[in-house]
User: Fold this.
Amino acid sequence: MPMRPLIILMCTFLGLTLLGMHAVPALLPLFVEMWSLSNTEAGWIAGIPYLAYLIGVSFIGITDRIDARRLLILGAIVNIIGYGGMGFADGFWSAMFFRTLQGLGFAWTHLPGVKAISDRVPGENKARATSIYISSFAVCSSFSLLLAAETKDAFGWEWAFVLPACSNLIAAALILFLLPPAAPEGPVGARPHLRIIPHFRPVLRNRAALGYIIGAFAHHFELLGTRAWTVAFLTWVVAVRPDIPAGFNVPLVATLLILIGVPTSMAGGEFGHRVGYARAAFLVMAASALAALFVGFSATWSLWVLAGLVLLHNCFVLADSGMLNGGAVNASDPAQRGNTVAVYGIAAAAGGLIGPVLFGVILDHTGGGQSAGSWGWAFASLGAVILAGAIMVGLLSWQAENRGG
Assistant:
């Protein structure tokens, strides 16, 4: 299959599977009120998919032995159950169960797409093709936030999860009927014993790949912490600031903030391809950290300063995604590419779980999110972690690439 139609197919598949990605963050203030949740409990509902993702992504190493196409179809089927069931949730524990299934579905539809593309694109085009696919994540997921809010207003919140269940059914059909089978890239020579859980050691010995993997943890800690709490943050800001115009549409603004990251993410991937993925990732992650350290505290500052910092943060928060993923693919041993993607995904999932939960814990311990200081410290925690990730990318990946790997 030629590269261009392959990328279009895989990005379409990704978009359909992510149609409910931000439905819970969009409806989180409603669930907090409806189910009498604490901020910590709300953080767990937002973050639990990434614990399931962490477990599910551990199995991606199997795509060094079998076609990733099979895992993509399985993931879409699990998503159908996870999203459909969420429409029947009636409290914290039922929401946690179906959100866990959504996390497994996400694990088996997101990063296995990287391996599916890598197995079908030759040579140096692998990193560019996978970078485009990863960079399309924001486009694919951004509309889920606005769609969930509008669907809730029109038909009830339950339908915000029925629609993603239907879209995942279409996604499974696309892969089944349109993506041709391909032999996976894996170890040459005799086929060793089939490993389902990834073999960490050879991946972690690769210093360049390790830097990107640590960067992936920090990136997803910041990204998912931001995505989980943006609607709640903006809802609080609107409530306490009389200078914000009446009719301010929080879900629409949150969607636009996600979309702002789309061109920066795609441009970032190309920038990394030209100047070096590690160098580009280091610079962008450091800039994102700087914005995150101040954005929460700015909630009661000048409206223009607040708007500028929120805008700046959302420009950078996604810009490093294509760089990190493309760099990890480029730095990986071809015989360990599936394992590298799996370990990368585990790190990303750990960050995606801890970020939203820790954000909620900090809110609960600094006044319950009822002051700019409370939100400031929560966002600052994201900034501190992404800054640490930038330093590790610089120390490991950048230095390894400067020495020629």
In short: Residues 207-240 form the longest helix (34 residues).
